[in-house]
Design brief:
Layout lengths: L10 H15 L7 E11 L2 E14 L5 E7 L8 H13 L8 E5 L4 E5 L5 E2 L9 H4 L8 H15 L1 H19 L13
Parallel strand pairs: 3-4
Antiparallel strand pairs: 1-2, 2-3, 4-5, 5-6
Length: about 190
């Protein structure tokens, strides 16, 4: 087996050769494992695709989000911004609900977090007694606040995400006022 060290694995190789295979060995099917899943967030009535992707999203057979895996290069020391990034992705997903668990790994160190509470689960596995597992993998707790924090972090993560959010808001608000028909009663006819 290829030795896991800084010289043999990139982030992409870690994701494809180690994490993906591990998830398959855990019993997840290819249709449940989404690689580089583009994040769509719900803002108001609309769903918007933003300029961010989860490395791996795992869904249940019925389409509920179970966990995301954020991979880093083996020589990358996992830091707080990596954890915030992963948890914000898990909290912000529009389709399938909040992913209750977030895994951050560089192949040498693996951390598992409860996506709602941001609590690190120390044993590198989730206990069968964890409340989310007891609740059939549905996120528990203050999910509204968690989603707000996740969206806030994602939008502020990059200038592109922020501008995309602003443009989408302007386009949506203008669509309410705008029409091509001068007799539509709308306020703005281009």
């Amino acid at each position: 087996m290829t030795k896991l060290n800084d010289h043999f694995f990139s982030e992409d190789e870690l994701r494809a050769k180690v994490i993906y295979c591990w998830l398959k060995d855990c019993g997840f099917s290819e249709t449940q494992i989404k690689i580089e899943f583009s994040i769509k967030i719900k803002l108001g009535r609309n769903t918007h695709e933003i300029n961010s992707r989860t490395d791996i999203l795992v869904r249940s057979n019925d389409g509920r989000n179970l966990l995301i895996v954020e991979t880093k290069k083996p020589d990358h020391k996992i830091c707080n911004s990596d954890i915030l990034q992963g948890i914000s992705y898990a909290r912000s997903l529009a389709d399938g609900g909040i992913a209750p668990f977030t895994i951050i790994t560089n192949g040498k160190q693996t951390l598992i977090y409860d996506s709602i509470t941001s609590e690190c689960l120390n044993d590198n596995h989730v206990q069968k007694t964890h409340p989310v597992i007891q609740n059939n993998f549905l996120a528990l707790g203050d999910t509204i606040s968690a989603r707000y924090e996740g969206l806030n972090y994602l939008i502020s993560l990059s200038e592109i995400n922020f501008l995309s959010f602003c443009n989408d808001q302007v386009n949506y608000r203008m669509s309410i006022l705008k029409d091509q028909d001068p007799f539509s009663g709308k306020k703005y006819i281009p």
